[in-house]
Amino acid sequence: MASLSSDEWRAICDKFTNAQNLTDVESRKDPDNDPFRSKYKARELLREIYCSLKNFEAGDGEEDSGGESGDQRPKEPPVDGQREDVFGQGFSGDSPAGLRAAKLGAVEYYLGVNHVDTEELSAGQEHLMNCMKLLERCRVSSENVSLFIHVRNQLGILWAGRDETETAQGFLETAESIYQRYMKEVHSCPLHIPIVFFTLSPTSSLRFELAYTHTMYYLAQVYKNLGETERAATYCHSTLQRQLQLNQFSPMEWALNAATLSQYYITKGRYMEGRHCLAAATVISGLAGEVPSEAAAQESETECERREQLRQKRAEIARCWIKYGLNLLQDAKKLLEDNIGELDSDRQEELKRARRREEEEEEKGRKSALLFGSEDTFDSIASLEEKVPCLLPLDFTEARAVFLVGQTYVTQAKEYFQMDGYVTDHIEILQDHSSMFRGLAFFEEDLERRCKMHKRRVDMLEPVCNDLNSQYYLMIRRQMMFELAETYNEMMDLKLTLANRQADTESLDNHTIKKFNSLCSASAKYFQMFLDSLCSPEGKSPEHLEEEVLRPALVARFRVARLHSQLISSVPTMQLDNLNRSLENYKYVVEYCDAHPEAVAAVETELELSREMAGLLPLKINRLKARMAENN
């Protein structure tokens, strides 16, 4: 029976060590004009190792298997739970022949990774599939279970990179099942792949656990690409948890991933989980250390880059907190508003009565949720969570608590995303801040205070909107114009409601009329600015409205019509002018929808009212003209 001498085996071990060093260390020093020099050298050493092991196997009477030729097309990987049977009858130690196959498979694995790293994907796939074929001669055991998982991870990555998502899914789900069954049935620590070249004594399970963590991470991406967002979120959450448990993570990268995951939970209304992710992100980001001072950053390029990265990533986490508070307020508003957009007090009282039961269930929910943190960090995460509500606010006091949390993070985010250099980001933060004021105003019963909240929105948006260059920021300006128009409109309605509580419109004092007309005109101005932005350079309105502006444009026309009819004036000629402009815009909505029937569904309510007003206003205009003629 052929065998390797101790000198031959030592030579193989030395070559493998050199190959690993070339791959992991020396390759980082390769010049830009020869980026794979060290990896090519490592490849030659791995080939030499393969030949030595292959000769030994052939001399020992084993049949030829693997190598660099033959049919290398992958078997159809199992999906949807139909995983390949790689377990045999159990997890007992493998035979000597099986171990030799595993050693050859390990070399094929490293050759495959080498080819993938040097962008030779077909060759990489060939070697990885050779590894799979060799492992088919083995049962999963502590000696080779790590290799079983690593090779399937690599094939999963390779096929995912080709947009063959379901193929990737099959390899990764098999890797997952191998890990889970091994951990269930075997209690010994698995070996790391390179150990087969040196000794069969157990090594740390860290690398094995990291391999499975990578499996979960890749499955999260696969499920996301398949549209299985719930499964993707679950795997992402578990990946983050395992990284903390294994203490193998970059604080800022981990924190950003956790903050990003929070946004998924928020969109699903799962605010407890979203808050937990954000609290963990904030605490873990603190492990990255303090932001270097500006003076220190100026002295060192490295410190300058670190300062910039820390400031940016913490500002991005702050923006995720803003979305948390904003969505909490908006979801509460949707739950509590009646058919005219006001607070439904009966519904409010009903939900308050149910709140006690909800709070009791929250603790149970927390215990069943997948929580982040070790003993060192969990208390800090829990302490931060206690300061932030996760239940939908039901009154002004609760809404204000949510608002103040969001506003704190608005300040933090704006410190980095300033107007000078981050125009789009800065404006989005302003818009979110404005929307939070709107959400808070919904709960305010005092109409004067509510009006002041909307005035805060105008004060933060109007100067920016007017200063923006339309050539470069047209879409953003349109958004801001429309929001300003609606905000002025809400203020006008509030002022009118307040006035009507005190007296009839006919007997409004001059100050109130002037204020009302000012708000009415401001709203009409911004709606008209929005409409003008859709016109050609010659000022001609588009004959066909694109889908993304169809509803906003027709709603703007409807609102302009309504606003002009509401302006209060004692001068008949001005009244006539306002009514004519109102009629003109109502008729535009009707005529456009008649000419474009596909637009009707977008503005059914506005169209119905426009048809009604287009029929009534001519009568009102004629009566006004008749009175004017009599007076003359």
UniProtKB/TrEMBL annotation:
Q: Which UniProt keywords apply?
A: Cytoplasm, Cytoskeleton
Keyword Cytoplasm tagged: yes
Region Disordered, annotated ranges: 57-86, 346-367
Biased composition, class Basic and acidic residues, residue ranges: 70-86, 346-366
Indicate where this protein resides in the cell. Answer: Cytoplasm, Cytoskeleton
Do you know which InterPro entries this protein is assigned to?
Answer: KBP, TPR-like_helical_dom_sf
Mind telling me which GO cellular component terms the entry cites?
A: cytoskeleton
Question: What domain of life is recorded for the organism?
Answer: Eukaryota
Q: What does this protein do?
A: Activator of KIF1B plus-end-directed microtubule motor activity. Required for organization of axonal microtubules, and axonal outgrowth and maintenance during peripheral and central nervous system development.
Name used for this protein in its record:
KIF-binding protein
- UniProt source species: Sparus aurata (Gilthead sea bream)
This protein's gene is called: KIFBP
